[in-house]
Amino acid sequence: MRNRLVVHAAAVLVAFIAGMALAELRAPTPATAQAPIKLKMQASWPTASMFMDNFKMFAERVRKASGGRLEIETLPAGAIVPAFEVVDATHRGVIDGAHTWSGYLIGKHMAAVLFTGGPGGPFGMDLFDHLGWFYEGGGQELFQEWYEKVIQRDVVGFPIVPFTPQMLGWFKQPFKGWADLKGRKFRAVGMNAQLLKEAGASVVSIPGGEIVPAAERGVIDAAEWCCPAEDMKLGFHQVWKHYYMPSMHEMTEAGDLIISKKVWDKLGPDLQELIKVTATEVYLRWWLQYVNANAKGLDTLKEHKVNVSRTPDDVLRKQLETWDKIRETEAGKDPFFKKVVDSQRQYAATVVQGRRAMFPSYEFAADHYWKKR
Known about the structure:
By secondary structure, the protein is of the alpha/beta class. It is built from 14 helices and eleven strands.
């Protein structure tokens, strides 16, 4: 009897153990926590720049929206490579991506100015018309074609930082018009550098973080970087007291988020879509903050005894006329450049003309309620 009880107890114990083992096999195993994907990206801006705020806003939104699956390290200009070399560094795999301005690549191919927003819009487009052309008018496909086939850089890119409107610039001494730009030692880049050269200025192209030191050494006596709030963050108001606005040279200017194509392909469709959506959301939200900061910055300039003056109309007209000649000359020589110009002209012919018919001018209601500054 005792032996039978022992055997029975053993059988029960074995059955219990077997049952537990089977239950463990059938129970779903907890998902293994995956380490986050970490990307190292560098900007073309100094640490103090407002544009770095845009970069950091993007990275933080991506981290939150991805549930921590994707983390982006945001480095300022010069942290790994010089400011103007971030696209090449992304192409070579030195960094995973960049927060930059494709206009810096104008030396590689002139179409760079068209994708970042050229003088006059182009063709009268404003910031959101140009963004509409990019996403709804074929611009995105042309942008990718330009990177892959024209300048042969293995990257993908999206608009992310709209730093428009841009001012004409800061001057050591006041000036009277287009002819008075001749001989000025002027810091400028991209198409603006070419426009100023046509005016007879001596152009110096250096990154934003080097402008104030160059002014203090007397290397330059005028410069264009951005706008009131951003320019003051870099200290322009401490070395110059003559500031002219507006300008036609970068009416729809926007910088880009650039990502290595190899890195992009490994992210998967969900994270790719997350990056695209977040870039557009940050484009809008940051620009709203940017416009507000610049408007308030106008009052701060007065406190610093900066003479804010209206750019002479002949300068604005000459900017457009000079650009028109450069654009048409280049379109006659370069088929891809012409392809992009024709695409923008066709889109603007519909949208710009349509908006002029449907929208009152900004000044109509503004002049009713406010005195001009």
